[in-house]
Amino acid sequence: MTRTLDEAGREKTAARLLKSSANKFYDPEVDVDWDAPLVEGKRYIPAHRSTLYGTELWERLSHEQRIELGKHELASVATNGLWFEILLMQMLLKEVYNADPTTNHAQYALTEIADECRHSTMFARMAERVGCPPYGPVKWRRRLGKILPVIGYGPALYGSILVAEEVLDRLQREQMNDPEIQPLVRMVNRIHVLEEARHVTFAREEVTRGMAGLSPGEKAYQRLLIAVVSHEVTRSLVNPAVYKAVGIRPRDGYRAAMNNPYWQDTVRYAGERIMPFLDEAGLVGAPGMRWWRRSFLLPNR
Question: Which DSSP symbol is given to 102?
Answer without folding.
Answer: T
